[in-house]
Structure to design on (81 residues):
């Protein structure tokens, strides 16, 4: 049986995460939006971009969007926390 933690899972936050995953996956971040780029100015205020191999804090902030990018700058993972 999977572990369910109140406030972390099944709260509707998955809908927001799915939206951001659909918007960002496979794109690069830039100054303007087009088919292959997402404008940084349109990201939520609480976000961080984590490059491949970068260190990041392990503190949990449920409102923060974590955008993981590869060495070429392409988004390959999006999480909350």
């Amino acid at each position: 049986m999977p572990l369910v933690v109140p406030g972390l899972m099944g709260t509707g936050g998955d809908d927001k995460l799915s939206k951001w995953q659909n918007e960002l996956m496979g794109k690069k971040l830039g100054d303007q939006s087009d088919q292959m780029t997402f404008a940084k100015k349109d990201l939520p205020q609480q976000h961080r971009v984590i490059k491949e191999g970068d260190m990041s804090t392990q503190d949990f902030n449920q409102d923060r969007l974590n955008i993981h990018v590869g060495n070429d700058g392409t988004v390959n993972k999006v999480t909350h926390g």
About this structure: The CA atoms of residues 52 and 70 lie 5 Å apart. Residues 13-24 form the longest helix (12 residues). Helices lie at 13-24. Residues 4-11 have pLDDT under 50 and may be disordered.
